[in-house]
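Per-residue structure
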Amino acid sequence: MGRRANCYDNASMESFFHTLKVELVHCEKYVTRRIATFRIFEYIETYYNRQRGHSAIGYKIPMQFEQIA
């Protein structure tokens, strides 16, 4: 971690931002930054963390995975 210009240091965040852009950002036009912030927050809190399965945890929903652990 911490090496400059090494994409593997931040691979999990790069993956998250790619998913965010593909599933939400590129599909919408935002009039204001405030609306964009709200929609991204809403996406993360209501869909990404509560409904979407994640490959790193066996395609389980993060809330289910936390309850098991």
About this structure: The mean pLDDT is 83. Residues 9-68 form one domain.
